[in-house]
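Figure 6 in text form: structure in, sequence out.
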């Protein structure tokens, strides 16, 4: 094999390494970015779940207050109807 043949083989090997390394680096960057985004989404969902539970607690508390008020009004109406008859 001549010197130029060796140089050609080395150039081919370097080209092969570059052609494999570039997509791997790009893939690694994309995976890192997606992992970061996924962590952010996890935190957002956790915050959403916490706020959602808090909102539901407030809604159920208000519904209980309204049930009590409605029960009181029904009692008052019953008393008024009994007086009128």
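Output sequence:
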């Amino acid at each position: 094999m001549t010197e130029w043949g060796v140089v050609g083989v080395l150039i081919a090997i370097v080209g092969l390494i570059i052609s494999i390394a570039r997509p791997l680096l790009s893939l690694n960057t994309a995976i890192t970015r997606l992992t970061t985004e996924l962590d952010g989404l996890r935190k957002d969902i956790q915050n959403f779940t916490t706020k959602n539970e808090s909102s539901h607690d407030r809604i159920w508390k208000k519904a209980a207050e309204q049930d009590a008020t409605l029960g009181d009004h029904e009692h008052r109406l019953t008393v008024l109807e009994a007086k009128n008859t």
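Caption detail: The longest helix spans residues 3-84.
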